[in-house]
Amino acid sequence: MWEIEDIPPSNKLYVRVHKNNINPKTAEPRPAAFKNTPEKGPDLSSDWEKHSTPQSSRDLIGKQFKYGTEAFKNPNDFFIVSFTCEKLSCINPPQSVQHTPQYNNPEIVGEPNNRAHASIIGDKSDEEIRLKFIDIYNWEIKPNI
Fold first, then answer.
1. Is residue 91 part of a domain?
2. Considering the domain boundaries, does residue 109 fall inside one?
3. Where are the beta strands (DSSP E) in the chain?
4. What gap in Å lies between CA 10 and CA 21, rounded to an integer?
5. Has residue 6 been placed in a domain?
6. Basic and acidic residues composition bias: which ranges (predicted)?
7. Which of 121, 54, 59, 51 is nearest to 93 (CA)?
8. Which residues of 93-130 are buried (b: 16+ CB within 10 A; e: fewer)?
9. pLDDT at 38 over 90
10. 3-state DSSP percent of the chain in helix, strand and coil, to 5
């Protein structure tokens, strides 16, 4: 089990964006990419740069099951954006961040352990809120469109 740590405002969080949530004309994420996961949940999953890299964040998705199946997700279907915690806190309504490492012993197949896991907490139900995420993201692993 890992200790929960404070995430400094200057640190980056990596968020996975599925290829279906990328506009093929602009190669930019669609607002739907930044819904809470699950949609009715309180947060958006991310990986903290202290314990992750963009590539390791992408690779980890290949150890997760597709929703409702026992088939693994394809990491090549996902791209990585980053946000600084400071910029997330400036969105209205504010988004907070919390280090939420995921650990099971033994590790559960389809639910990999993840020391870097962090939650971006706050309302994202309205598309206008999610559009604000598009103003502050940076590509880490960009699609070739």
1. yes
2. yes
3. 12-18, 43-48, 78-84, 96-99, 117-121, 138-141
4. 27
5. no
6. 37-52
7. 121
8. eebebebbbeeeeeeeeeebbbbbbbbbbbebeeeebb
9. no
10. 25, 30, 45
